[in-house]
Amino acid sequence: MNDTPALLKVEGLSRHHDGGAVKALEEVTFCAQAGEVVALTGPSGCGKSTLLSLIGLLDQPTRGRVCVAGQNLATVRQPSRFRLRHIGFVFQFHHMVATMTLLENVESPLIAMGLRRAERRARASDMLEQMNLSARADFLPANVSGGERQRAAVARALINRPSLILADEPTGNLDRHNNTIVLNLLMAHARSQGALVLIATHNPEIAGAADRRIELCDGRLVA
Amino acid sequence: MIFLRNVMRAPARSLMTALGIAAGVALFVAITAITLDLRQQIEGAADAYKLEIVVYERRATSPLSSHIGMPQMQDLQNRYGIALSPLVVGSLNEKWNPYALVVGVTPEFLRSIPLTGGEHYNEGSGDAMIGEIASQKLAVQPGQHVTLDGRPVRISGVFRSGSRMLDGGIMTGIAQAQAMITREGAERQYTMALLRSGQGDTAAGLISEINRLYPSLKAIPGTEFSGSLRLLRVIEAFVTTISVVALVGTCLVVSNTLLMAIAERTREIGILMTVGWTPWLVLRMLLAESLVLCAVGAVVGNAFALILLRVVNGMESVGLGWIPLRYPLALAAVSLGMALGIALISLLWPAVVLYRLQPLTALRHE
Q1: Which of A117, A149, B104, B121 has the smallest set of CB atoms within 10 Å of its CB?
Q2: What is the pLDDT of residue A1?
Q3: Range of the domain at A93
């Protein structure tokens, strides 16, 4: 830990379903700094994905609060705009749009930013080159391998240079080789851009490679 | 072109949707074309014969269903002289044309009718002139005979009136026309009279005078002739109703297609919302797809309409010249505009669905 202000502050965060019968997350509190790679571990159903959804403004907490870059997420009026500026998502199953080429998928956040086509294309092409996917730029997701799709998904998450990357089991569906590539890409981004990478994972290798590890069990923080 | 790829994602469904739009557009274009043409023909004929004042029976629903008795017409002729042209209009159900219009005109009026072949008939000869369309259909030349009302009638000439309905029929003397269209034993009558204003008279003055002196008659300016045809107004109301039904039906077809697209692509929409797309941006993508489908539907629909008009025109049961084979370009443009309007209106429901969709729910959609 260093003395720089926390990029992410989670305070007493709870998420209940069915009127409190299901406690997906209970009183979770932690902080994380920019440039860190934090592994979020725990058994299936422990609340890792729920926590990422709350931090990513995809869901609303029952109690508690989340601050990203100093802003309380409860006060964010346009979640999509906030996600666009601050947050990048990487999912387990790459989640690409089937009718968009890899290049179009990667540039999709830039469309939302309102950038001109030429600039979008240039930035997306550059990002794909960094991911070693230039040769696949015009391929539809169905026509490339799972590893290539996941690299493209990482490229899409990084294209708008977010300060916070939320990765939900990003390597859960990949072989060892691609697993290493994707992990290295995320860590390199955290180091070079000073971004916080929060990775929900079962993979002990990823957990071991992260700067810090947060463990959840039954919706509570245990370590 | 992402939206084209999306349209082609379910090609059979897109094709069916485009055909549904095309059917709606074809229906709208075809029936509107027929109605517009009917009005244009009537107005065209009124213009061609410079109808200044039309006099007809007040209680008649329209000038064409009017009956004016011989004594009253005689009285009108005594008052206005050759400025007044009595007219007899009726139709015969002939094998070659089930709605063969028969128009009986005075010798003065006869001279104003342009011919494309032969000559005007001699009054009292019992001869007739045939319209250009009927002449072509029957391959009848001046000097030959056609059967009308079971009797052979000699054709003296071929006329072109500017109205296809008239050009599919016959023009003859008043007495001859009355004999053809009046039931046996019934009193011979006139249909209406046309009146021209002369020196010292104004059309408005004459109209006012007739309406005052003849309470059982009604005089209107020639420009109001087509508007006074109740049948035309009924047809136009019918066309409007059918058009609205076609419009609503087509909107539902397109809306259903877009809702299915949203249902199938819910997870992808969730991804896009997660990476920062607003519902409006997603809606724009759907709008592009909707516009493509509707534009294709409009083009195909216009092609269908042309085919439909040709088919109906060729039907034996339809009167010669009653159905146009083409229509104004403006109508095609209106149909395209209508289709684009459908593309917009059809998005209303999908838009509500999209704005209610939460990214997390969308991402978890199976």
Answers
A1: A117
A2: 47
A3: 34-59+78-214
